Amino acid sequence: MDITPGRKFFEEHMVYLSRKYFEYMVNKTYTADSILYNAFPCLDTPPPNVVQGRAELIRVFKAYLEYQGDIQVDSLYNFLETENVISFQATITSPKTGQWAVGDVWLMESGQIARHFGFADKL
Fold first, then answer.
1. Checking phi first, is residue 2 left (phi over 0); if not, alpha (psi -120 to 50) or beta?
2. CA dihedral 64, 66, 68, 73 (to 10 degrees)
3. 30-85: pLDDT as tens digits
């Protein structure tokens, strides 16, 4: 079975996260004016948060993985892709905080994430 473009994009995104290649990931996969709307509990302000621009995204992804540690994706489900959207849900396990249900919606522009909606709930 051939991997779809959206699934390939997702897999590359996860490799960058696992290797902590934050700058490369953000600069390659997010538009310069991208916005992240998230419910991550690891920032200095309570969720929900709105984070704009690549420099801030890099800061947030670093903070997220410092909070969680090396996350493991236990299950990936409800994966959906269209020409302009990639969305999915997953359960992940963090060595620091336990198991989570997460979901993301990526609105795409020219092959990059322009708007990223992220959700998380501790199980």
1. beta
2. 80
3. 999 999 999 877 778 888 889 999 999 999 989 888 888 888 899 999 999 999 99
